[in-house]
Amino acid sequence: MIRAGIVLLSRHGVAAIERVRDGRTYHVLPGGQVEEGESLAEAARRETHEELGVLVKIRGLVAVVNFGTSTQHYFLAESIGGEFGAGDGPEMGSTAESEAGSYRAVWLPVGDLLGRDLKPKPVASMLDSAPDPAWLLDGWLESPVVFDEV
Known about the structure:
21% of the residues lie in helices and 45% in strands.
């Protein structure tokens, strides 16, 4: 499966989706499956709007995460409109008790990404430990990093 997502930074932190499922709370970077005929960047923009309610400009690919049979592509994004938290994708109305679990747009403070169980862990770990995540991501734009997550 091919997925596309974003890394969106603001003064509030890193945009994430809080998931509550099977009694566990964890966070994921916004994104989802690439649909037929859609480019990776188009999928990342669409999924961001569906999940966060935000329109974004894609600045470039920063990370590729190989996880089992899934390849996940993450793009550095810049907010250009919309309302954070107003995502209306089909998964956004689900409850924690549902089979899919709940989805909620949140900002996570940089420096607490690992404590909040942000996935994918390799990207969270690099962002969490960077003195300035924006500088780190600019470097990744020049040469996207590739992680194999176990």
